[in-house]
Design goal:
Structural class: alpha/beta
Number of strands: 7
Number of domains: 1
Strand order of the largest sheet: 1-2-3-7-6
CATH architecture: 3-Layer(aba) Sandwich
Largest sheet: 5 strands, parallel
Radius of gyration: 18 Å
CATH class: Alpha Beta
């Protein structure tokens, strides 16, 4: 089995695990967690310089999950890599658990608390500036949801990143076109996204965010342009991998029933048998 197929296999395992977490907890953000899995797997298993045994390693790459509500896949990956014990995932959103519904710095590997949407990019800009000041070569990756782009702080961060020429900063938009209230273009139109970010001084790229091979390829090419932050519009499907969840805004914050979980698991298992063509 080649490396790409191993990683595709991993994306399915992560999807199964996060669905089980949400089912056990009876709470969670299903659709957005499923859409972002391929992006996270590409970063954590192939791209970023990290050390689970030394989560505060000074030369590590930094990752900020600005769309903090889609935390289930993130926690699952941190556990799979050894930042936390896999057994702890069963405590997700339980009383006194540190695995709450948004990322917390109490968890090794998490760089900042997120949850109030729109704050992640500005914090990542600060991290990128610090890296430049310290003459370090680490990169900062920040994953945003498309719905949170209605927050003004996103555009303040975007303007600052362009001004300071932060080519060590990579922004990623999980562009699944759905937020809790429905289609993004009906709630608060975003397009033309590429032109907007370009106007703020970013080098903008667009890719299939559910194609792990393409995401790895684009991450490895960065920085493509010197002295500019990079923005990847990752075109995804909300609920990717489970047919009855895909492209349905109701699954932004919906928990599967026992029967639905069984169907979802069978669908994901069938993808493995078909050769990882998710």
């Amino acid at each position: 089995m080649n490396k790409i197929n191993i990683l595709k296999n991993k994306t399915i395992q992560i999807r199964k695990a996060l669905l089980q977490m949400i089912f056990n907890a009876k709470t969670g953000h299903t659709g957005g967690s499923l859409s972002s899995v391929d992006i996270l797997v590409a970063l954590y298993y192939e791209i970023m310089k990290i050390n689970p045994k030394k989560p505060k390693w000074k030369s590590r790459d930094r990752f900020v999950l600005s769309k903090g509500h889609s935390v289930e896949g993130y926690y699952t990956i941190l556990a799979d890599l050894g930042f936390i014990l896999k057994e702890e995932l069963s405590n997700y959103c339980k009383f006194n658990s540190r695995l709450i519904g948004h990322p917390s710095v109490k968890i090794p590997g998490v760089e900042m608390n997120t949850g109030a949407l729109g704050h992640g990019l500005s914090a990542a800009v600060g991290m990128a500036i610090a890296g430049k000041m310290d003459k370090k070569d680490y990169k900062i990756y920040v994953l945003m949801g498309d719905g949170e782009l209605a927050e003004g702080s996103i555009w303040e961060g975007a303007m600052a990143a362009g001004h300071y020429k932060l080519d060590n900063l990579i922004g990623i938009i999980d562009r699944n076109h759905l937020q809790i209230s429905g289609n993004t273009e009906k709630v608060m139109s975003l397009e033309n996204l590429k032109e907007k970010w370009h106007a703020f001084g970013w080098h903008v790229l667009s890719e299939d965010g559910n194609n792990i091979e393409k995401m790895i390829d684009i991450f490895k090419k960065i920085p493509i342009v010197k002295e500019k932050p990079h923005l990847i519009i990752a075109n995804t499907i909300k609920g990717k991998g489970v047919s009855f969840i895909e492209n349905d805004a109701k699954w932004h914050h919906k928990v599967p029933s026992k029967e639905q979980l069984e169907i979802a698991m069978k669908e994901l298992d069938s993808l493995l048998k078909k050769g990882f063509n998710i």
